[in-house]
Amino acid sequence: MATLPTFRNGRIALPLGIVLLALLFLFLAVAASQQRDAQWREQLFNEARRDLSVLEQARQAMRGEARIAVYSLSQDPDVLRLIRRINTLIREHGRAHPEVLRLRAQLAEDLDGFWQLLRQAGAEELQVNLIEDRSTLLRMRERDVWGDQHDEGNPLNQLVIDDPAIRSGLTLHYDNASESAVAPLLADNRPDSPLIATLQVSFPALVDGPIDRSEGLSLLLEADSVPAGSLKHSMPLLGQGRWLQVEKHGAAMPPGVSDALGTLDQRTPERLYSNSDGTWLLSLLPLEAVADEQPADTPAPTALVLWRDISTQAAAHLREQRQLAGKWLLALVAACALFSLLQLSSYRAARRQVLRHADAIREESQKREHNRRLLEIIARTQSAYIQQNQMQVSLHEVLEQILALTGYQVGLLSQSRLEPDGTQTLQLQSSLDTRPHPEPAPRTLVDAMNASSSDQQARLIASGNPELHGAALLPLLFGGRLMGMLARWVQAINATQL
After folding, report:
1. Model confidence over 229-284: pLDDT tens digits?
2. Where in the chain are the domains?
3. Range in 5-14, 73-82, 107-116, 300-309 the model is least confident about
């Protein structure tokens, strides 16, 4: 019997299947972990974008308030009258003239009520700047200080001088920043009258919002855009020297986070940074601003950056990732166990089928061996007719083998003879009785053989005689002629083989 291939008996199929199943689960687990990590990161980034968007909306709201304030004041006839009169007096008599001082004090008193409202709204400056000598006429925050050069601190003024119209935006002064609006004040009510002064309202660039102790907010200016020697005060360098920190709210930025800031740009505005001290989230929002000593129509490279300590969230996320990996591992173990059971069941079913097949082959082999031996006996019987000198001995041996092979107890071997009248008769040549107490063969069996001499079909004797029950006849043929007859008889009832 041929041996089954190795894959069928499961010696390689089972471990190979488990390895392939483990690889599949590893791929699925890695994909699920990456997807979960990407979703977690995206959630953090969305929260940071939302917070920065809220701050940006607050900045825009302050810018709108500044525009409304300067527009309202620029349309106030009393304010316009006082500023125009002061400008005329300064041009004719100088700043020290008593009437200039009196009118300036009156202007401050008239603006005080409006200034208090602006202070309550969060404004940090309300000032009037003269165009002729580019000096400051009035600062409501520092009313005693005036007459200095306003161009150094008001970059929006140049935009208004070049094109008299209300301008607003984020203004950088290299020592602070503000959301400002500037309105032109003309010499009279004619549209083509000369510009004599500007009115400016400023709000803080960064809103004092609910910033947690674990996060910080900074307004940045790209260091390469700042002319050499233009800084009045030293400002911290962040992002490996790429950014200048103009303003800051909240916690200080750790050194490692500061270095990671240099990798952020418009294409990659967010990232996570981790070291031995913790994990931080950085989010960058590019802005447009007007800076000192820079062309007024060229926006300065400015950005708003938010950093947040997310070490607690990162640790919780890591635990969840490990729990997810554990669940995938348990699923792999369960799948391997199920696969092993299925493989074992399949192997046992195949083994049973192989055994049934082997039994069928063995039974077929036994039948063939039985037929071969029977044919060998018949051949020896035919050969006994040729060897007349050993006829009786050979026939006796043949009968012994036939009875031993077929299970019969009595055997009679007769030779066919052709009588002169043309009929065939059977002449008994040999007989054998293997019963414990041999007895003469029933006469009826000999008569049945003679009566069947003309029948060449092997069969059981169909007779109602109980002596013939269990008897069988086997004609011996050679070349289509009947050469003899073999009769077998068993005293038992179960005689079914010929």
Report:
1. 555 567 788 888 888 888 888 877 888 888 888 888 778 888 888 888 888 888 88
2. 26-309, 387-489
3. 5-14
**How much is the mean pLDDT over the chain?**
80
Phi, psi of 259 (to 5 degrees): -65, -40
The model's pLDDT over 186-229, given as tens digits with 9 standing for 90+, comes to 988 888 889 999 999 988 887 766 667 778 888 888 877 766 55
- The two domains 26-309 and 387-489 share their CATH topology (first three levels equal): yes
* 3-state secondary structure string across the chain: CCCCCCCCCCCCHHHHHHHHHHHHHHHHHHHHHHHHHHHHHHHHHHHHHHHHHHHHHHHHHHHHHHHHHHHHHHCCHHHHHHHHHHHHHHHHHCCCCHHHHHHHHHHHHHHHHHHHHHHHHCCCEEEEEECCCCEEEEECCCCCCCCCEHHHCCCHHHHHHHCCCCEEEEEECCCCEEEEEEEEEECCCCCCCCEEEEEEEEEECCCCCCCCCCEEEEEEEEHHHCCCCCCCCCCCEECCCCEEEEEEEECCCCHHHHHHHCCCCCCCCEEEEEECCEEEEEEEEEEEEEECCCCCCCCEEEEEEEEEECHHHHHHHHHHHHHHHHHHHHHHHHHHHHHHHHHHHHHHHHHHHHHHHHHHHHHHHHHHHHHHHHHHHHHHHHHHHHCHHHHHHHHHHHHHHHHHHHCCCEEEEEEEEECCCCCEEEEEEEEEECCCCCCCCCHHHHHHHHHCCCCCCCEECCCCCHHHCCEEEEEEEECCEEEEEEEEECCCCCCCCC
The CATH-assigned architecture of domain 387-489 is 2-Layer Sandwich (3.30)
Closest CA to 166 of 73, 42, 231: 73
What is residue 4's predicted lDDT score, i.e. its pLDDT?
45
Domain 26-309 falls under CATH 3.30.450.20: yes
